Amino acid sequence: MTKVIALAGKGGTGKTTTSALLLKYLIARKKTPVLAVDADANANLNELVGLDVQTTLGEIRKELKGDMPTGMSRDQYMEMKIHQALIEETGFDLMVMGQPDGPGCYCAANQYLAMTMDKLADNYEYIIVDNEAGMEHLSRMNLRSIDYLFIVSDPSARGIMTARRIADITGPLKLEIKHQYLMVNRAPDPVPRALQAKIDEAVAEADMDLAGIISSSDDLIDQELSGASYLELAEDSKVIEQVFAVFDAIFEHSA
């Protein structure tokens, strides 16, 4: 069975960084193949894994407003274009959602997208969805059941408060979430008592467990500034060891 991993959180908390590190972890642990979906309107997951994007699903949805090729239905055309938009790499594929829809109704396009995602899902062991805070894309892709939701925060009171709010809205969205976690990025080492208290309070009062607290890392900063892929980070670097330990505790325990 394909397992769906979604990430959410307010802007700037490190959702995309966490997605890239999670992808590196799954590849290293041979939990492949993986489909990585960049569902954030400000798409940049491809940059962190060193890939260029030629086509986004937002562009494909716009094409569905026009005429279809002769002898091809809209769902056949959508399925063909989605497969063309997949960026295929060793151990994983990447798909970029692109900018949100403009004026007009895209209900039919989103329906075709959901149908095609259902078919794609069977080809992967894991699907990672780097998502916006509102999580609307999860409904559009028909991913109603989520095995792991990582709500990502920076080491700030606002970030942790937003994480709590996201945890609270998953119920009204009628998403079936099997495991829900808080992950705090770029934390000082050691963690200040005030920050730890905010984290403990959020975990206690919201329906989520603490996945881990990831320390601020010069390795990640240097990798991003150089434009190098996060997938190339050495596994003996401090941040990778820390991240892998967090994910081992989650995925090996719940496997």
UniProtKB/TrEMBL annotation:
GO molecular function annotation? ATP binding; ATP hydrolysis activity
GO cellular component annotations of the record: cytoplasmic side of plasma membrane; cytosol
All residue ranges annotated as the AAA domain in the record:
3-169
Provide one Gene Ontology biological process annotation. Answer: negative regulation of cell division
Keywords, in A-Z order: ATP-binding, Nucleotide-binding
Identify the InterPro entries for this entry.
AAA_dom (IPR025669), CooC (IPR014433), P-loop_NTPase (IPR027417), ParA/MinD_ATPase (IPR050625)
| Record protein name field | CO dehydrogenase maturation factor
